Amino acid sequence: MAPDDNWLTAVFERERWQLPPKPGEVERILGQVARRRRRRLLLRSVVAGLAAVAIGAASAVLVLRQGTSADEGSSLLGQPQTTGPIPQPRVVRVGSVPDLTAALPGTAVKELNYRMAGHAGQAGRAIVPQGVTESGNLLAMVTSSGGAPDVVELDPATGEGRTVAKAKLPELRSASVFRATIVWTETAKATGNPDTDADLAVVYRCTNRGSGSVQDLALPRHDPAGLGYEQGYAGISVGSGGIAVEMARHTGGSGPNPSDDFDLYLATDCGAPLRLIAARASSAQFFGDWLFYLHDGAIWRQNLRARSASALVIDKAESFQLTDDALVWTDAVGSVMSTLHAARPDGGFARTIPVPETWRFAYASNAVAVAGTIEKAKGFRSVLTGVWIYLPSRGVIVVFDRPNIPIPDSGEQPAAAVGLGGGAAGKHVLLSEYGWTVGSTVASTNPTHEWLVRFP
Amino acid sequence: MPSFDDFVAARLGALRSYAHLLAGDEAAALGLVDEALVRTGLAWPRVTKDGDPEAYVRATVVALYLSRWRPRSRVGATGADDQQAAATRSELAAHLRPALHRLPRRLRTVLVLRYVDGLPDSEVARLLGCSERKVRSDAAEAAARLAPAT
Predict the structure, then answer these.
(1) Which of A43, A188, A205, A314 could form an SS bridge with A201, CB 3.0 to 4.6 Å?
(2) Which DSSP category does A77 fall into?
């Protein structure tokens, strides 16, 4: 005979117990939250994450190895749609990046192998692009013949570079472009460990290709109430409405300790002053005349041209990305097991897409695709095993995943995996193959392969 | 609404107790609660907006547990803690707990949600993504399996 409900309830009630925390355990958990928040904020702007930027010796010799060409033909892709229902996506698993051309006909894959010339004609270290333009040019930091670092824009077709600006600091964390405006973040030499890199010197800069003048973005030091901002964790994006900057408040304590509490500022152009556009808001993205952002656990949009009041688009969201024809977001209904959602940019035709818990929603999207990483968790550490790329209007999710990659012990290098590279724009996305561990014990390696992918 | 720091300090012990009922061993319970609290901390403004942080953490613990999330092994996490915890257990440790931990994860989770959280079947069904009828049949099966041990 089964026990009745009252009996079971009473047993569980009697057996409630509390294990008091040991000294330091609360602080350890709070420290983990702070570390993971810092990492997430870095990923917001870095995309490629913690891969070190390599800077080579003088007299650049750029070597470009042509990759697989586009292959037009029968397609697993549906026809592009910009209106109407979002198609149910099919998952296409791909073993290697060059295989994309067969899996998604019309896709172009170019393997990048830019290197600086080293001493005595030997190849030097690889140049790692940290941004891509809408037309597919690469933004990277290189060292000029005078020994000073330059931010350059490289044409992958010719291997020729054009100097964007003389750098103030030796590493390029991220760069993004919208038409004539380029914004980027320079940092001091990074180790790749977010714990030790937390207080790196950082400068945020922009230029307009027309004028050629380079400006340092003068970030606000504190909010209107006088609460300080974390200068090293600003999120910067550029788009049709100008340059959006989100500033994280300091949570207190000594050293860099950004909160999840952001204010959103906007400059209409490079050199224009930043003005507060939305308090307690983050994740700014532009869509035509609209500025989308997260506020109070929801996605809002504001028409910048009409200077309209903000309107609610999605009422429960944790993060989102925009393509030219879709809004993709995650929520956390009932638990933290994120579910992917897609809709048209006005929120219509919403569709829910169940995804594995190992998928991470990253801060990368271009005109046609949203991308994220796949990570295998091991306690507070996780290891990159692959990447997913969702093309909402084409009804396809491309998955590169090596789930059997062993989780390394401390000090060991994980096996290589395909991850997101240094940027996405237009129909382009940069993919990298490299091994890294993330979390409280970080070890990163330089990318072993880089590809520029252009979707049809 | 308390700060996240205050919440962790006040509820860490109770949350570990809760996780232990699900996971059945100290190391797994510690790992589940640590991960759930980190995720909760990252989402704290939204969690407090929704109103019940402890319910959120518990739901996260359940979700992690059912997803077969594996904590990193924690050296030394079980020895002293186990002894301390053991001193607080009596009836459950002696009779019910071994049988409880022989149950499949899903049945064990239904019991914990029903009799520890006191959730109605509709809420248990929503959390587990199944029908209320399935919750009731799982609960009956779990209780029947426990009966011989009692």
Answers:
(1) A188
(2) S
**Domain co-membership, B73 together with B125:** no
- Residues B12, B9: Cα–Cα separation, whole Å: 6
* Residue A124 φ then ψ, to 5°: -95, -155
The pTM assigned to this predicted structure is: 0.70
Of B17, B42, B97, the CB nearest to A260: B42
For residue B127, what is the enclosing H or E element? helix B121-128
Of B67, B88, B109, the residue at which a domain comes to its end is B88
Q: Are residues B63 and B21 in the same domain?
A: yes
Distance in Å, alpha carbon of B37 to nearest chain A alpha carbon:
7
ipTM for the whole complex: 0.71
Residues of B in contact with A260 (CB under 8 A): 42-45
Q: How many CB atoms lie within 10 A of CB A196?
A: 11
Burial code (b: 16+ CB inside 10 Å, e: under 16) for A283-322 equals: bbbbbeebbbbbbebbbbbbebeeeeebeebbeebbbbbb
CB contact under 8 A, A336 and B60: yes
Question: Which range marks the domain in which residue B26 is found?
Answer: 1-88
Give CA–CA dist A48/B22, Å, rounded: 37
Report the residue from A2, A11, A30 with minimal CB separation from B91: A11
Same domain, B81 and B132: no
Instruction: List, run by run, the mean pLDDT of 10-residue segments along chain A (456 residues).
Output: 60 61 80 74 46 29 35 45 86 92 92 64 64 90 76 85 89 88 88 64 91 92 90 86 89 67 91 93 90 91 87 89 92 58 93 85 85 71 79 93 68 66 87 58 54 92
Kindly state whether residues B76 and B104 are assigned to the same domain: no
Residues B56 and B119 both lie in one domain: no
Residues B72 and B38 in one domain: yes
Residue B108 has pLDDT above 70, yes or no: yes
Neighbours of B94 (CB within 10 A): 10
Structure tokens at A399: 């998955």
Q: Are residues B57 and B107 in the same domain?
A: no
Say which CATH number the domain at B120 has. Answer: 1.10.10.10
Amino acid at residue number A324: D
CB contact under 8 A, B147 and A3: yes
